[in-house]
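sorry to bug you again but im stuck and you know this stuff better than me. what follows is a protein written twice so to speak, once as letters and once as structure tokens for the fold. mainly i need to know what kind of three dimensional shape the backbone takes. anything you notice is useful, everything is just below:
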Amino acid sequence: MLGQLEKLKQNALQELENIASAAKLESWRVHYLGKKSQLTAILRSLATLPLEERKTVGSQANEVKTALETSLEEKGQLLREAKLTAAGEGHIDITLPGRPFPVGGLHPITQTLYEIYDIFASMGFQVVEGPEVEWDYYNFEALNIPDEHPARDTMATLWVDFETEEGKRPMLLRTHTSPMQIRVMEKMEAPLRVIMPGKVYRYEASDATHVPMFYQIEGLAIDKDITMADLKGTLYEFARRFFGEDRKVRFRCDYFPFVEPGVEMAIECLVCNGSGCRLCGNTGWIEILGAGMTHPQVLKNGGFDPEVYNGFAFGMGIERMPMLRYGIDDIRLFYGSDLRFLRQF
């Protein structure tokens, strides 16, 4: 049987030398290394041999198999190289380096989101996401915005009819990320610190400062003895780390139905450094977000006792952050798929 193996090896290698195509190479592989090949039959018959002869024949058969597989790989590589050379003759110089493929990257909005995540994560906030198709209760009612509230008029809402066993029930594409405040309070216990990013939708025309779909991040912290100083310190630290350590911050009173008191936060204009210019309307300040202390009724709607717990909330538009940082004057550029713009980030 040893002589049979040696003769098999010599015949196979000699035949391999004369192969000049991939199809014939595959036929050679099936004939000498396939499941029905002579070599495979020898390997399967080892169990019938005496122990000493089995060791010798088995070792020799494995060596033959390894030699044939190695030769097969080398021959395949030679045929592939020959094919490339033949294809390139008269067309391309295959000795030249290839053209590099353009390297992709994260969208600037995604980059901004990740940076904001890192900033708030370092302050103990965790990221929570929620549904984009929302119930009226979470989007409005639980946030102190009942049917007759004028604040509903400022949010051009996209409504959806949802079929239930009782009939159609109105749903909507969320107009802000604030509904997540109630959802988080229903599922989590104090103390809690979360940021809630996501897409929001408004039924309005696109222009340089408005698009029907954009991103927001909502922040919420609830514990005992939280004060306005905690809110201001948190947001000041965010502005300092996102816009620069020397950037000044201003807080002014504002109204939002789900906080009391409410504030708007503005930063010193990045173009004129507070002296007044066209971008900031000659005020020296640019508003970046709204915030406030969580309204007691909102705490109660979320399942917290306002006599024991209090908290703060804030919300910001994500597109506004890179627009201010890089001086971008049209929000539509983020969603226009213009690679000349996107490759700058």
About this structure: The first strand starts at residue 126 and ends at 127.
